[in-house]
Amino acid sequence: MINKRKALMLALLLAAAPACALAQGVGGQPPAPGGPGPGQVAAAPVPWSSLSPRQQQLLGSMASRWGSLPAERQQALARGSQRWLNMSTQQRSMARQRFQQWQRLTPKQRQTLRQRWQRFKSLPPQQQQAIRQSFRQFQRLPPWRRRMLRQQWQRATPEQRQRMMQRAWQKSRQRQMMPMRRFPAMRAARPR
Questions:
Q1: In 10 A of CB 2, how many CB atoms?
Q2: Considering the domain boundaries, does residue 186 fall inside one?
Q3: Is a pLDDT exceeding 80 seen at residue 72?
Q4: Has residue 115 been placed in a domain?
């Protein structure tokens, strides 16, 4: 069982970043001076009593100062704790590993990841989906092929990287445009 301090740290992390993208970092910054910007609505505080008993237990060390936290932070903690409670054992284990990886990063590496995450979030949904799909395809490659592609990418100049990305996008579009082919075994099995 995880101790309360680690559970709180994980809840804080999960509140600030989805489990799949630690690049967001450990948010919780107070709102900018002067309140919300034009077109933005101020966050509503989350009463401690509105949290479930399990959330209150998980966030127990925050109880005494809950009312003094900014509303954005309260909402983030409530969302993060609920996300943590809804995770399977395997997902929690993965979240712990990612949190440990995040802790080992230097401040500069964390900042770089936060910037990349912001750039990703600013992309149109179709491009985000294409990137996610490409990443899943990359993850399915054998380890030796992934290592080879990483090395090739690291050795490439910015211009070469741009060309590599363009070729990958073109291949992806071509695959999407290709009609589904029937498998010969399926044709033979069909009744006539």
A1: 13
A2: no
A3: yes
A4: yes
